[in-house]
Amino acid sequence: MNAIRPWRTIERRQCRQIMVGDVPVGGDAPITVQTMTNTPTEDAVATIDQIRRCEDAGADIIRVSVPTVEASAAFSKITKAARVPIVADIHFHYKRALEAADAGAACLRINPGNIGSSDRVAEVVRAAKANGCAIRIGVNAGSLEKDLLEKYGEPCPEALIESALDHIKLLQDHDFHEYKVAVKASDVFLAVAAYHGLADAVDCPLHLGITEAGGLIGGTVKSSIGIGSLLWAGIGDTIRVSLSAEPEQEVKVGFEMLKALGLRTRGVRVVSCPSCSRQGFDVIRTVEALEKRLEHIKTPMSLSVLGCVVNGPGEARETDIGITGGGQGKHMVYLSGVTDHHVQSEDMLDHIVKLVEEKAAAIEAGEAVAFDPHAAQETQAAE
Q1: Which among 297, 300, 302 is positioned nearest to 336, based on CA atoms?
Q2: Of the candidates 160, 224, 164, 241, which has an alpha carbon nearest to the alpha carbon of residue 193?
Q3: pLDDT over 90 percentage in the chain
Q4: What is residue 138's predicted lDDT score, i.e. its pLDDT?
Q5: Mean pLDDT of 268-276
Q6: Which of 113, 121, 343, 361 is paired with 283 by a 20 to 30 Å CA distance?
Q7: Going by DSSP bridges, is the β-strand pair 23-25/18-20 parallel, antiparallel, or unpaired?
Q8: How far apart are the first and last CA of the chain?
């Protein structure tokens, strides 16, 4: 599609690739979606239950705090139970990093400068190498080193970048190169500027995030502006949407960002109108119900839900399955962009769910493909 629509093209920043467990990050690998548990790590059962919900939502990588000896003891149970790589979140206590590496961590999230002496950094690096762990350097505007705050007067892009480069040097001095870097801030402008500068300065994968972004709605908006603009510029290899919401919500928002930019596809992409007095059915409640009932669908496909015939037919022509509101409780159903049949209001929800499930099953079985309305145009352009 991009060949005939160059305005859709995103040229990803070139960087080297590292492995986080069995998940590649950077290079030409898909941009991964991360989240972080918020249960007490010491409670392995509760943490594993939360990890399972995040895995079901599509998380590629999950981070778990390891602040105490008791958390370290539970961590090995957690990594064994997880189906995705687990990142150990470490602050200050270098021994927790050593324990996590031995307990199955796929990656250690640290600030090398907070670990202590060069000898302690060397120990962490040795443990990471011995256990095949990657390391994420996590620079945060809220916890910049005192000397950088004194030098720059306040958190600024240059300070975040300098902090990241200093931490990178600590790892490189110990011949460790399996790292990725984040320079997060709650200020969108600061974070975006720092990531742009860092992207030009290093060749490692970048972990994107707007930290302390806020609640589900406000945090989603801030993160979409910040992370979305960076991804659109080709910057970023893995993302975590930081929300004061359940971790699985972070995963869902992250995937919606990537889907909106055409960078990842997973599950049903819903196109729906905001509704108005022309609507032939309750669009808002219908979309809410469909999104909930179709959460189990992992197959990439598209569904349009439009309340009336003004934009409905045009949007339906672009999707696998479409529903357009009509009069007297009778609505038009579109299949692969073509009008197919009508359905009554009382049967509509069950009917649409059934159609989506059947199309997803056919795609998974290799008996059908997701509808691409532009495929014919691409073929014509190629000829």
Answers
A1: 302
A2: 160
A3: 89
A4: 92
A5: 94
A6: 361
A7: antiparallel
A8: 14
Helix ranges (DSSP H) in the chain: 44-57, 69-81, 94-102, 112-115, 118-131, 146-152, 157-172, 188-201, 216-232, 247-260, 283-293, 312-316, 345-364, 375-382
CA distance 248 to 55: 8
119 pLDDT band, cuts 50/70/90, is: confident
> What six digits make up the tokens of 171?
């790892």
Q: What is the CA radius of gyration of the chain?
A: 23
The pair phi, psi for residue 170, each rounded to 5°, is -60, -40
Residue 52 vs residues 43, 84, 88, 314: alpha-carbon distances, Å: 14, 9, 17, 39
Q: How many CB atoms lie within 10 A of CB 352?
A: 23
- Give ∠ CA 109-112-114 in degrees, rounded to 5: 100
Residue 382 predicted with pLDDT over 60: no
